[in-house]
Specification:
Layout (H helix, E strand, L loop, with lengths): L1 H7 L8 H17 L15 E5 L2 H6 L4 H10 L4 E5 L2 H7 L2 H13 L3 E5 L31 H18 L5 E6 L16 H14 L6 E6 L4 H7 L6 H4 L7 H7 L6 E6 L2 E6 L2 E6 L4 H14 L3 E8 L18 H13 L4 E5 L1 H9 L4 H12 L11
């Protein structure tokens, strides 16, 4: 099972800096307690457009046939399904799998979002063909786009992918990269804002239907994980409770009015440290922290989606994957309720491949929970597709 675990876990956000942060927390942690809590607004809330993400790679790693799995998701009537163009897979095998998925979505009328770029949906985060590097491999923790040859090759991949699918009638929006400004993956790389801006410009120039663009960020979790995923490492401003140069801020800076800021929200993360398995929980302030960016985005005339709401385990080891500690079906409903109460009208639940795998193994409680959420939000309006 180690190969499956390596593929599925997303623990590359946790560099060795976490050890030092555990010590530092004793000094600066109490400062957050001095910050005033945000008041919650109470109103009659409209139904939420519930979506999900799907990866044929993740499906295959769980022993699922990706075509059958995708068709099963279509029968669940998600308002949108997010797909990803995996550069190394396309380089090695062509667009065949993605062609099938996008054509099937168009045939069935299933709205989709397509993520393009060098960083795709799911571990190991970066899907770069080895031949794309023309110079030395970038050092761990650095901007991967320092290599000019890699930048040119990645841009060509984005342009070819956009040109290939721009006329698909089921395509609602483009996502440019996946969490580009968070350090992630085995090498903890990140992508420069200037390059993401260039990718967005290229996408807009090719898409005569003027679809919205999504750029997403790994949302606030807790002090330790936030600093681990920050591209600049330790950020004293945010440690002291002030707004630093966050991935959310960078994401908004490259978007236009009408575009979409995506926030990825997790409340339980397993990790390995000093030879042991551990579980970290999100700070109790996570709803207020992501609400801040919702307010900022809306003030700029930009939409906000939850592009990943944790609905599958993030375990420290495979031994607890089928009986997880990081999340439960009840926790999925609790998080969804908190996000709906926060005023988010589009929420994509992360973990579709896991629900289908558990269901095929006789455990239907995960998919039953998702079905229940979909039923409760069935009156949400459909996304308006550009024709």
């Amino acid at each position: 099972m180690p190969t499956l675990l390596t593929t599925l876990r997303r623990s590359g956000r946790l560099p060795s800096i976490v050890v030092g942060l555990l010590v530092l927390a004793g000094l600066v942690g109490p400062l957050h307690l001095l910050m005033p809590a945000r008041a919650k607004a109470h109103a009659v809330l409209p139904p939420v457009a519930v979506g999900t993400s799907f990866s044929p790679l993740r499906a295959a790693n769980l022993g699922l046939d990706y075509q059958s799995a995708f068709k099963q998701l279509e029968t669940m009537h998600f308002r949108v399904i997010r797909l990803s163009a995996y550069w190394n897979e396309v380089d090695a095998f062509g667009y065949g799998d993605l062609d099938w998925l996008t054509a099937e979505a168009e045939r069935s009328g299933q709205p989709i979002v397509l993520s393009v770029g060098m960083k795709g949906v799911g571990w190991p985060e970066f899907y770069i063909p080895p031949a794309a590097f023309t110079g030395p491999t970038p050092a761990a923790g650095h901007d991967v786009t320092q290599d000019p040859g890699l930048r040119d090759a990645a841009m060509l991949f984005v342009e070819n992918t956009v040109a290939r699918y721009r006329h698909n009638r089921a395509l609602y929006a483009w996502q440019i990269e996946n969490e580009p400004f968070n350090r992630a993956g085995p090498s903890h790389w990140w992508i420069s804002p200037s390059f993401v801006s260039d990718e967005i410009e290229a996408t807009r120039s090719l898409d005569d239907r003027h679809r919205p663009v999504i750029v997403n960020a790994f949302g606030h979790f807790n002090l330790f994980f936030d600093q681990a995923s920050n591209r600049d490492g330790l950020d004293l401003r945010s440690l002291l409770g002030f707004e630093g140069d966050s991935a959310e801020k960078e994401s908004l800076s490259v978007l236009n009015q009408g575009d979409i800021l995506g926030l990825d929200v997790y409340t339980g993360i397993g990790y390995q440290l000093m030879g042991g398995n551990h579980l970290s929980r999100a700070g109790s302030d996570w709803p207020e922290q992501i609400a801040h960016w919702r307010t900022v985005a809306r003030a700029q005339g930009k939409q906000v989606w939850i592009t990943e709401a944790q609905a599958e385990p993030w375990e420290a080891s495979m031994t607890t994957y089928a009986n997880p500690k990081s999340v439960s079906p009840a926790a999925i409903r609790t998080m969804f309720g908190a996000l709906k109460d926060g005023g988010y009208n589009t929420i994509l639940l992360w973990g579709s491949e896991y629900w289908l795998w558990r269901s095929a193994s006789g455990d239907t409680q995960w998919i039953d929970t998702v079905q229940s959420i979909l039923h409760s939000e069935a009156r949400a309006p459909s996304l308006t597709l550009v024709t």
